[in-house]
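User:
Hi there, any thoughts?
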Amino acid sequence: MSFEMIPYVEWDGVRTFPDKYMSGLYEQCVDEGHAQTVFYEGTVRNADDFLAALKKSVCWVIAWNDVAVAIVWLNRHEGRFARMHFIVFNDCPRRKLIDLGRFTYRSLLALKEKSGLFCFDMLLGHVPVRNRVAVKYVLKCGGSLIGELPNGAWMADERRSVPVAVLAITREMLS
């Protein structure tokens, strides 16, 4: 079985996933202990904030054997790149984590406009440096550490800024 990316979009006034389902994924994120790590800036504090953020972004639910194992969303688009955000749920088999990351990066970087041009030439991630697990994950999946920004991440619960790792993924890096 392979991964499947299912867009979270509105089509003719109806979302591909009901709000209740997406709220349930937020609750799963909280229950698994990922929420504080992913939403460190404090802008997402509950399911309603989560839904609002996803509806302003370009978002996909990633499934493995019909089970949601991740959510990825893009925002802060500029030129042909966007900021990428990723939650991997505990339901993802550990032996498939790198495959999941590579699948996600390749799928997003392969998206094309009607004109045939790629939608994105780069995906950009900002991860607090102290989140070594996330930084290593991006690198193992084919991304590259571009550098660090001092005080680039606001940690709402600590009321202070910390250094952020700037990570990039391009098609060339995945070749």
Remarks:
- The longest strand covers residues 67-78.
- The radius of gyration is 16 Å.
